[in-house]
Input
Amino acid sequence: MEQAVKDVFNQGAARANAAYQMGRRRFTVEPITRLEGHGKIDIFLDDKGDVERAYMQVPELRGFEVFSIGRPAEDMPQITSRICGVCPTAHHMASVKCLDDLYKVEPTSPGRKIRELVYNGFLFEDHALHVFVLGGPDFIVGPEAPPAERNIVGVIGKVGLEAGKRVITMRRRVRELTAYFGGKVVHPVLGLPGGVSKPLDPADLPKFKQLAKDAVEFAEWTVDVLKKIVLGNPEYVKMITSDAYTHKTCYMGMVDEQNRLNFYDGKLRVVDCNGKEICKFTPHEYRDYVAEHVEPWSYMKFTFLKPRGWMDFVEGPDTSVYSVAPLARLNAADGLGTPKAQAALEEFFKALGGKPVHHTLANHLARAIEMIFAAERMEQLVNDPEITSPDVRRIPTSVPKEGIGVVEAPRGTLFHHYQTDERGLITMANLIVATQNNAARIAMSVERAAKGLIKGGKVTEGLLNKVEMAFRAYDPCLGCATHSLPGHLPLSVNIYDRDRTLVRRLEQP
Amino acid sequence: MSIPYIMDNATSFAAPRTEPAGQRILVLGLGNDILCDDAIGLRVVREVRRRLRPDEEIEVEETEEMGLCLLDYISGYRGLVLVDSIQRGTLPAGEIHEIRADDLRTLSYSAPHFLGIGETLALGRELGLPMPDMIRILAIEVEEPHLLSTEMTPPLQRALPDLVQRVLTTARGLAEQR
Output
């Protein structure tokens, strides 16, 4: 766009925005400060000092579409895997599937199996990181433990040094699997339209068979640890099932022909808060089912179920708010296709009062069950005779136009959608990332936590931690790929009185 | 419209090291090539690598990874110079905040997603991995780390030569300490 046109457009947008704000008579939240990548929660109190609304804002990447336009579509798996240092393999895989669709080429069967093997390995590794390192402090160490212990060293103190080493070693071995095919761990060059870049050498198969076997065992051990520490503690169970952390929304997840969970491919199934299927759609139909809602206080677009229309941040059988990620996937599928994971799944629903489970904090347990599932899928795939076939790629011949690719990323459903000209140069690129699919429910969780902890202007101690726990369970991808020190995302909470005057500011020490 | 080919500067992404690095010093650049100023850590160490003489006991690595994965890079070295970006607003873009390893919140429970450098070092020590004794953290103030772009902002481009020199001097200083 010409600069002059851009300026006029921006001025118009600013005026429209100001008019909208006036119309709503709502306090305008300052744009988020990006200093040190703060996440910010603004809480607005009413006359009585109770919470009227609470909003969460996070820094966001900008310029993705502009950056992509004009580039060869084949660059997209590399570009998109670079925009996120947290789940690069998920972007890589969604992007490669999008290229298959763009070039109308079906990957060869061995090529597809290698992709699935690597993808399940990635899911397993990423989940392990969350269970032990990021979510672990909340559960394995405990929400009431002194702050100085609520960290990875505290987790190791609880599960034992040997177990800690086991966690680190297991993750490293799985990452070596990605590196074997992708050349590198963090931004793999693995998938190509129609297949993958490298076959599995039969000579290397035994070590991957051993890895898959060990991964299954490790995942079962992980579920056992959580079962003992979390489900074995009535206080934890009470907290998980408390109203503060419960929302009755719809759930989305990818399923195979038998409605069983599949991380890599399938249709998207949505169930309502009673577990009843509302819709099931192919990636190509996503625009008929998923729409985006904009709020004046956030950069984030909140996705909702399009056939139901946006109904605000509400829950119940008719809500159009849905969520994604481990708990949502287990709720949306009819089961898991592998025996050990299926057994763990049944136990999970039994322990938490039946399906669907609406307790946000149960995501941590759901994540561990998905680790078993991913490991068992790896085991199935490495024992598949086709896995060492050299026939790993089909060369595309069609003229490209439009492609859509979807996978289940660790944090939930991830959509990639590109259009190109006949030379395969990008003319449109759109992503809907997992955290966006969860954004409405995350906003509800943050507000719920705030409402429960602030009454009559009094702020209950531990507010920040409780609010954080609510959104940490979703494992939201807040930080994009910037590495800026201090290397994590500090959170601040601002509390404003009814006159919109800042009365308190809470920050982690 | 000219579009830089993004793989030009593809990093090596070395596999986790298995043999001990002994007495060597590691210069580790962190950042993201396609996020404007967030590339600074990578750009600086690439230039440092070019300028090192073969006989110097200094190795250079760069990565777009973060958190726990950094353990694989830093374990086994005697000294570490970490080059990263920061946005604090207290210095002009292109200037360096030298952060002492002790000053990093060594253990934080506030990380919703990442494991910071401080936590990573503490974890490595807890697990009995050989962690570097000497650590220098050079965090470069940046202007724009959230925009997808392969080009850094002018202040960062201008600062590059000085930054390279500063990192080289720091790394050589560590190499001389016995």
